[in-house]
Each structure stands twice: as structure tokens, then as C-alpha cells.
């Protein structure tokens, strides 16, 4: 089981989603993040990965949800956290497209299967607040 984080980054009541440009999930949308390294907390992982993948700074806020999914290439545990965009100009490296969207608009995007429970949790969270 590979432990992976996902940042549900908010800015102006919209959330950052990104489309993978290469690898096993090429062409699918996801919440950005990455693999947790040894001796690293999920929160530290998110800050490091978002800086590496987009060259922006975020704060990691509260936990949202966890998803477990078995892909043909790996079994993953995806841990999602609310995060806030702080500073920097978005420069996607591992993605070919990025969008700022509302939870309702996310239904129009083809998300990676492991990310779908996080999309649903975010939709539920926004409709409860």
C-alpha cells in the first residue's frame, strides 16, 4: 500500500485541480499531491510536493477524507487535506492543464478513480457549511 497525499487547495471559493500529462494516470484530473516519504508527515509531504510540482506555497489546514483504491500498477491510500494557497505563480510541471473550479463543476471532469471519494467529500463538506 502506497500512502499518498492530496491537497484540496482553495482560492476565492474555488479549488485547484490538475490533469496528469504522463504516467499511469495521464489525461485524468486529480487533486495535486504525492507520495509520503519515510519520516515525513502527510502535511509536510503536501507542502513539499506542491512546491515541487507547482512552485507555490500553501498552508495545510484540516483533514478532509481518505480514499483507498487498487490500480493495476499499485494499491494506494490517498489522504486528502484542505489547503490554502498562499503565494507564488502556478507553474505546472507534472500536469498539462490546471483549473480553479467549484465542487459542482468537478462533475464535468474525468477524475482519477482514487480522487472521486475526495470530490464527493468536498461536495458534501461545502453543502454542509
Give an overview in words.
The structure is a single chain. This protein has 129 residues and is α+β, with helices and mostly antiparallel strands. It contains two helices and seven strands, in the order E-E-E-E-H-E-E-E-H. Strands 1, 2, 3, 4, 5, 6 and 7 form a seven-stranded mixed sheet that branches. Strand 2 and strand 3 form a beta hairpin. The longest helix is centred in the middle third of the chain and has 13 residues, at 42-54. The chain is globular and about 35 Å long.
State the main characteristics:
single chain, 129 residues, alpha+beta, 7 strands, globular
User: How large, in whole angstroms, is the Cα Rg?
Assistant: 13 Å
Mean pLDDT: 93
User: Order of SSEs, N→C?
Assistant: EEEEHEEEH
| Model regions low in confidence, pLDDT < 50 over at least 5 residues | none
Q: Name the helicity range.
A: 10-25%
Number of helices: 2
Assembly type of the chains comes to single chain
Number of strands: 7
What distance lies between the first and last C-alpha atoms, to the nearest angstrom? Answer: 33 Å
Q: Which class do the helix and strand fractions yield? A: alpha+beta
Q: In one word, what is the shape?
A: globular
Strand content: 35-45%
What is the makeup of the main sheet?
7 strands, mixed
Amino acid at each position: 500500500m502506497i500512502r499518498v497525499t492530496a491537497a484540496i487547495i482553495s482560492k476565492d471559493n474555488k479549488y485547484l485541480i490538475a490533469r496528469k500529462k504522463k504516467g499511469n494516470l495521464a489525461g485524468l484530473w486529480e487533486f495535486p499531491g504525492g507520495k509520503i516519504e519515510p519520516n515525513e508527515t502527510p502535511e509536510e509531504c503536501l507542502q513539499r510536493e506542491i512546491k515541487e510540482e507547482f512552485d507555490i506555497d500553501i498552508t495545510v489546514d484540516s483533514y478532509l477524507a481518505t480514499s483507498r483504491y487498487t490500480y493495476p500498477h499499485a494499491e494506494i491510500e490517498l489522504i486528502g487535506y484542505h489547503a490554502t494557497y498562499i503565494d507564488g505563480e502556478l507553474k505546472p510541471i507534472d500536469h498539462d492543464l490546471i483549473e480553479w473550479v467549484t465542487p459542482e463543476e468537478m462533475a464535468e471532469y474525468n477524475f482519477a478513480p482514487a480522487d472521486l471519494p475526495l470530490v464527493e467529500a468536498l461536495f458534501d463538506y461545502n453543502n454542509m457549511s
